[in-house]
Specification:
This protein is mostly helical and 118 residues long. The protein has one helix and no strands.
Length: 118
């Protein structure tokens, strides 16, 4: 190596290898080594996420609160359904007037005589 400048006019750092021009390296899966497309988010061979895959935060406090609220709502809905289904206290539903008048058995019906004019 010499201390002469490159033909481009830039000095070459002796500790670094010269830059090579050529096609960019083919991205590979970190798990199985399969070739990947430049914009591929998951490996088509093993399904492993690539560095381009969105990072999902798993768990967390918000998820626990949402799950707890769903359990409480489900228990409330179940209790309401049970209360409605087992409502057998003998009273008729509100707003219904299903009363019938029945005459006692064995009683004579009195019919008044017709009115005649003066």
């Amino acid at each position: 190596m010499s201390d002469e400048p490159d033909p481009d006019g830039e000095e070459q750092d002796p500790g670094q290898p010269p830059e090579e021009e050529g096609p960019p390296p083919v991205p590979r899966c970190e798990v199985c080594g399969a070739e990947l497309e430049p914009d591929q988010t998951y490996c088509l061979e093993c399904g492993a996420p690539t560095p381009l895959a969105p990072r999902l935060r798993r768990g967390g406090r918000a998820l626990a609160l949402l799950a707890g609220a769903m359990v409480i709502l489900g228990a409330g809905a179940g209790a309401l359904a049970y209360a409605v289904a087992s409502d057998d206290d003998g009273s008729s539903p509100a707003g219904s007037s299903a009363t019938t008048a029945t005459a006692p058995t064995g009683a004579a019906t009195v019919v008044p005589p017709p009115l005649t004019g003066p």
